[in-house]
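Many introductory courses stop at the sequence. We go one step further.
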Amino acid sequence: MTKGNYKLTQWGNKNTSQKKWVIYTRTATQKEATANNSLENQDRLCKEWAKYNNVKVVEVFSDPWVSWLSPQKEWLDQMINFLHRKNKRNKRISFVLVSDTSRISRDGLECIDIEQRIESVGAKIRSTDCGRRTKADTERGKVLFNNWQENEWNKRNKYSK
């Protein structure tokens, strides 16, 4: 389904539509904040995607003008604490929705770290642009493959000496 300048990708089933979601938005610069990737546009896209997929959004967290290079992402940390508190009390918030995986981080290893922090409190990241896969999924696969490849290389060289 096309809506405006973007395509709404339907993703989900009865199990995901009955769960609670939060939205996370982030802009890196003042220029980005006023462009197509503004917090308002990300928020609108996520809410339209949620409505289209019949999912319940319970909270929105936004980090304005926070570069992915910055170690301080105040609202990201607040969101993770919120998920921890709610899930500890069986309020079950299962998913974090982002308009694009780059909103979490543009760095693969940092994205994996943040995704693991979110998963440790009982939630998973989902993106309006690709549903199930996050950039961390791809990066985790690359890291695991590289580690495996390095281990294999080390084994061969160890035995060939």
